[in-house]
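Input record (one chain):
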Amino acid sequence: MAWKGAGSWLIFSQVLQVNCVFHEMMGTHSILLSFAQFEREVTAERIRDKVRASRMKGMWMGGCPPLGYEVKARKLVENPADAAHVRWVFARFIEIGSGTELARELAERGVTTAHGHRIDKKFVYRMLNNKVYVGEAVHKGTSYPGEHKAIIDREVCKRRLCPIELAYF
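The corresponding structure, as predicted from the sequence alone:
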């Protein structure tokens, strides 16, 4: 079927054919997007399973190592200078029981994080509640024996009287 208007011919069948191809392409595009989303989900699940399995073995899975440790050959190794600071923090917290006062004392002593930032109260409490220091690897709230050496004895952690995480140690 054709229609003549304003000096040119317009064939409807061609217009309809273009529309059909467009809809077919959209259907194919939708199917491809569905498969791509499925692949992303499967890949993400495999990565999560790999991280979980590695943490269950006690392996270090990357990131910034906690104060007192450094990474060598993908394993956490004790850094003696920083480990001494960590031991002092735990011992001093048992004596004074105040994260704020402890942060002030650390600032006076010139102790900083691995990136050179000053240690504040928030950092102190995170350090006191970090199970890496007792030789454990944690994944999604579950602790597993770690491959790394503990800097802090478990008994010291139990004595530290920190009300935040007493139930976990």
